[in-house]
Amino acid sequence: MSSKIATNIRYFREQNDWTQLQLANKLNVSRSNITKWENESTIPDLNTLIKISDIFSISLDQLVGKSLSDEFLLKEFERVYSLDQETNDEQQEIIVAIDLLKKNKSLLHDLNKLSELPVRKQKSVLQIFNQLIHEYERI
């Protein structure tokens, strides 16, 4: 589990474009603590995990990498992205994406590996993926 916590702390920190020092200041801890957490040398205590999840505006389940149900994911998407009745098509797309991931474990595995990459590399891979899809559609 510590590997997921380490990966998620780094991922959400980078998503917010924060340095380790900036996150450390927000948590009132030293930068070296952040480094140790991200390198899996130590894991934060429960109170700190709660603070981290609050700072990132995510659930503790998300922070520790617990598997989430489709219904919970949809509710989180609705909360985060303010989905409402007018965006029923988007909700359906989310359900289709979740279903695709459930049926294609290798894709899920690859996406998990992608999520462990630094944000810049993730963006590059996603750009390549988008280009590949567009090229395939042209054929």
Describe this structure as you would to a colleague:
By secondary structure, this protein is an all-alpha fold. The termini are far apart. It has helices spanning 2-15, 20-27, 31-38, 46-56, 60-64, 70-81, 88-103, 105-115, 119-138. The longest helix is centred in the C-terminal third of the chain and has 20 residues, at 119-138. The mean pLDDT is 83.
Spell out the key features of this protein.
139 residues; mainly alpha; 9 helices; 0% strand; globular
Oligomer: single chain
Reported for the largest beta sheet, the result is: none
Distance between the termini: 43 Å
Can you give the mean pLDDT? 83
How many beta-strand runs?
Answer: 0
Low-confidence stretches: none
User: What is the gyration radius calculated from CA atoms?
Assistant: 17 Å
In which range does the helix fraction lie?
Answer: over 70%
Series of H and E elements: HHHHHHHHH
Would you tell me the structural class of the helices and strands?
A: mainly alpha
Shape verdict: globular
Number of H- or I-type helical stretches = 9
What percentage of the residues does DSSP assign to strands (E)? Answer: under 5%
Keywords: DNA-binding
Protein name: Helix-turn-helix transcriptional regulator
Domain HTH cro/C1-type: 9-63
Organism: Piscibacillus salipiscarius
